[in-house]
Amino acid sequence: MPYYQIIAKRPTSDKHYFFVQKISEELKKGLLPEPKAYSEAFVPIIIEERNPVLNSDSPKLHIYVIWEEWKGIVEEHRATAIINSYTEVFGEKYSNRISIACGFLLDEAKELGVINHV
Fold first, then answer.
1. Could you state, in order of their start, the residue ranges of all structural domains in the chain?
2. Which residues partner with 47 through β-bridges?
């Protein structure tokens, strides 16, 4: 069975810091009740899914950020911006619990079932 190790590239997008700033601003606003429908009016949409881990008091986090600004940005850079935002707002101990960080366009999120309300 082949075994590969890939070294992730650092984000080179000029928009990286814009993404981190905007997501951080939204995180600082605090949790909102889940909307009945998602639209571009709620941007970026941040979904934090908590997944319990056996023998642990700290559930792993799956973070999904739905935002049309991701268009043209590769997945790795989307994930890095999300993790950096969480680190900036909540600290490294909290962001280290993130096991999945994905950025989606609204249509991608609907197609993949990340959001069920259309």
1. 16-31+39-112
2. 64
Give the closest residue to 25 by CA, choosing from 81, 68, 80, 77: 81
CB-based contact 82:62 (threshold 8 Å) = no
CATH class of 16-31+39-112: alpha beta
pTM higher than the cut 0.70: yes
Angle at 105 between CA 99 and CA 106, to 5 degrees: 105
pLDDT digits (tens, 9 = 90+) for 30-59: 877 666 555 555 578 898 988 877 666 778
Helix, strand and coil percent figures for the chain, each rounded to 5: 35, 20, 45
Q: Alpha-carbon distance 82 to 5, whole Å?
A: 23
Nearest Cα residue to 67 out of 115, 29, 104, 15: 104
Note the pLDDT of residue 115: 79
Q: Which has the minimum average pLDDT: 49-53, 64-68, 86-90?
A: 49-53
Provide the β-strand partners of residue 102.
64
Q: Are 19 and 87 in contact (CB under 8 A)?
A: no
